[in-house]
Amino acid sequence: MLKSVLDLFFPKVCFACQFQLGDFEQYICTNCRHSLPVTNFHLENDDSVLKIFYGRAKLEQATALLRFEKKGITQQLIHNLKYKGHEDVGLFLGKWLGSELKETKNYENIDLVIPVPLHKKKLKKRGYNQVAKFGQEIALQLNTEYCDDVLIKITNTASQVNKSRLSRWINNDELFSIQNKEKIENKHVLLVDDIITTGATMEACISVLNKAKNVKISMASMAIV
Questions:
Q1: Is 20:13 a contact under the CB 8 Å cutoff?
Q2: What angle do CA 21, 100, 110 make, to 5 degrees?
Q3: CB of 135 within 8 A of CB of 110?
Q4: Are 65 and 222 in contact (CB under 8 A)?
Q5: Helices (H), the chain
Q6: Burial (0-12, 13-18, 19+ Cβ within 10 Å), 164
Q7: CB 57 within 8 A of CB 95
Q8: Which of 71, 140, 198, 210 has the fewest CB atoms lying closer than 10 Å?
Q9: pLDDT digit of tens for each residue in the chain (225 aa)?
Q10: Would you state the pLDDT for residue 18?
Q11: pTM, to two decimals
Q12: Quick one: which H or E segment has residue 152?
């Protein structure tokens, strides 16, 4: 009875299409779930993401769950996650991707999951890192540790949307620092982020993480442009 009353006044809606969810639906409706443009990179041994970083950064493995298109369903999901306070989108995507990665041999030896960090000013303003629940859920699925005190963002930057490839590269140079290096020494780290566009942010993070001794790095994102 109470649930019915709550649903009447505070209906749960799909994070993609905004229509009310059915009784057995969570976060996203069945129709939108089946419409999401999944990549299947990690399931099909597709190295499309790795190719972005050839000659730029050394990676063991790399994948993205969804394809990102302007005004598409993936954009709507991530917009709700980043700007509407719907952190459960990250949880939903992390549980989904994590459940697939744990069945994939290439990701079975991950020791730590590390999120691309936000600058402390942006974190205070937003109230959360949009990648946190995504990374935490992947770590849970892989039965490994989530660690957000190694990679630190030291320079606050404006949104990089609509910036050129060169501008992104310049603006990501020396934006991050590393602390507690001993936590990742001789470890295989999975770096996670929301969207891969040019790869400049990930490249900057990888460069900093490589300051640790004998670290191996793989990466996973919610989406790729």
A1: yes
A2: 130
A3: no
A4: yes
A5: 2-9, 30-35, 48-52, 73-83, 88-101, 120-126, 132-141, 165-172, 200-209
A6: exposed
A7: no
A8: 71
A9: 544 444 444 578 888 888 888 888 888 899 999 999 999 999 999 999 999 999 999 999 999 999 999 989 999 999 999 999 999 999 999 999 999 999 999 999 999 999 999 999 999 999 999 999 999 999 999 999 999 999 999 887 655 444 555 454 445 556 899 999 999 999 999 999 999 998 999 999 999 999 999 999 999 999 999
A10: 84
A11: 0.88
A12: strand 151-153
Cα separation, 172 vs 124, in Å, equals: 21
Same domain, 150 and 206: yes
Residues 6+ apart with CB under 8 A from 101: 42, 63, 107, 110, 138, 141, 142, 220
28 plus 130 within the same structural domain: no
Token reading at 124 = 């205070």
Q: Is 146 found in the same domain as 87?
A: yes
Order of strands across the sheet that contains 145-146: 62-67, 216-224, 188-196, 112-115, 145-146
Name residue 20's amino acid. Q
CATH number, domain containing residue 145:
3.40.50.2020
Q: Domain range holding 212?
A: 36-224
| Length of the chain as a residue count | 225
Q: Do 166 and 122 lie in a common domain?
A: yes
